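Hi there. Long-time user, first ticket. I'm pasting a complex I've been working with (about 710 residues overall). I'd like to know whether the download I got is complete or cut off, because the file seemed smaller than I expected. Thanks.
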Amino acid sequence: MPILADNKTLAVVQGLTGAAGTFHAKQMREYGTKVVGGVTPGKGGTVHEGFPVFDTVAQAVAKTGANTSVIFVPPPGGADAILEAAHAGIGLVVCITEGIPVLDMVRAKRVLDASLSSWEPSKGSQTLPRWSAAGGAGGLPTRCNLVGPNCPGVITPGAAKLGIMPGYIHQPGSIGIVSRSGTLTYEAAFQITELGLGQSTAVGIGGDPVKGMDFIDCLSLFEADPQTKAVLLIGEIGGTSEEEAAAFIKANMRKPVAAFIAGVTAPPGRRMGHAGAIISGGKGLAADKIAALRDAGIAIAPTPADLGTTMAKLVS
Amino acid sequence: MKIHEYQAKQLLSRHGLPVPLGIPVLHIDSLDQVVHQIMHETGSETLVVKAQIHAGGRGKGGGVKLVKSAEAARQAAGQILGKHLVTHQTGPEGRVVRRLLLEEGVSIARELYAGILVDRGCSRVVVMASAAGGMEIEEVAARMPEAIVKEHVDPALGLAPFQARKLSYALGLAGTAARNATAFLLKLYQAFVALDASLVEVNPLVVTSDERVLALDCKMTFDDNALYRHPEVAVLRDLDEEDPSESQARGHDLNFIKLDGSIGCMVNGAGLAMATMDIIKHFGASPANFLDVGGGATQEKVTAAFKILTADPDVRGIFVNIFGGIMKCDVIAGGIVGAVAEVGLRVPLVVRLAGTNVEQGTKILAESGLPITTASDMADGARKVVALVKGQVS
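Hi, the file is complete. Here it is re-exported in full:
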């Protein structure tokens, strides 16, 4: 059993009829993912590229039993799409959309974390375990796992591809990957596949400052997953998620972990593409993250060309 | 996106926040009239002349002058305007001052700090205040973190009045000043949210001798992702404060940051782009830029990106590192060949392609007959481009 996505995944695509939604829904289906329908308000009742289209996520869930959503809605409606999926009882929402305003995500995340007291904000990660099949009781928002936004998605090779990553660079295996970067995740998966190891699940958690699942959420799922033998963590400058992950690994993980941090050469005060990748106020430096990970006994890949080999050394 | 102090104060004022009377001077011709107007409205000859650049530390750099007559104001303005102002945030080359803010002098009783930003650690907006106004908040945080008081905001409620009161009393304020500070913080939070700011810093936030609470300085930055719904903010962009190649790149929807090395990089994806910079450094050279062409780039966009790299006189070699996912390698290859046909190639070019349509991409490059060095993986590519650039030097 890998994490988050498996052969029981029934996916609905929000924003199906847009260019990105159409292209990737077809790619996901070709990979073997059970894409059971799409949602585009105003186009309910039609069929698009063989996918039944619904006006609302609630209708899609009622008709298809979807338990997962993949979002390609444009940024102004991105956070609303996440809330709609959560309200419909979707258990896993993967939001690919890049460019959602940060304050929209602050509000959406508040709803996803609604079981917490509103005076005690969550510490960056959602408490686990909460992965379950769909089913919010009474139409109320339920605990919902969000991956993203601004992420490549989740892939469990051979079972389900929920996102925009190229499927063929992956193969079923025992390495869990969790990453803040898109193409760097592909680089990692490719190197691991080339070495014949394969992946249990690869999760791109996204490059935004306010997002759903963080490293710790994925690490604890990988630790509990029998198929995963070791984990590769790919971080980047900005924030303190990697430092928190290091502390979590030290205290809670028995499986070996390797890591790479991008942005050793990034200048402070500049947003390096991702909204979250910025060194500000002396925080978020790559050197601090690497030191924290090393201190937790984690193997650090010296260059991005050594992601696979660093991982392989730990499992050989 | 950053804006100038005077623009930030105009926005605050529009949201009902008290700021000193001030008028920007964009051309020296309007100076006399502005000086006269402020003196006339305040009945005082005391003015502050402030350089407007997108960097802090202006006071220490000589960009802020307190003057006590119209003549002294003219003199100070003449000294500052057009000057290369060097502060600890501008780098040694400094910034040319093209705009001034003239402001009434204020009788200051206390200097405080107020700041609002998104605390990514807990996905909430946090309102911070400190009695150590005038100091940089990073310095306060490092030296006396207990001097900073914070309130996290529930986005469904907004900043509650009791939270603003807690902050005001924690600053040691009382009576009218405390009431004014509470009102100030509540309005500041409302402005932050209404404008989709990513940072608002009022430093110093001053209490005047007559217990008014004013924003004496203000720094605001905005969430680029939300600019589409704030045209009134988007127009405040000052292109003079940005690197021309960065403005050009933004026009093509490219993520580009100019750096001070010699190897131009073109990469798809922000993480891979940063990692590419790192691996160049690892092999002993420095990147000339960060450039993420994005996931769904067209051939035209790739051509535009390539032209920006070749136009940079500091670039002595180019490394293209692509892992095709949505981005197809043949599109990249076509874009490179198109750009070289248009603008030529004066420096060594190393290309590493992997992923979607890699065979077609490699074929396009080979058939172009261009002097392109191909690389099997990113380490190979980085090693080759560094060797080629170093070979040029020796």
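A couple of notes from our side: Chain B has a mean pLDDT of 92. The radius of gyration of chain B is 26 Å.
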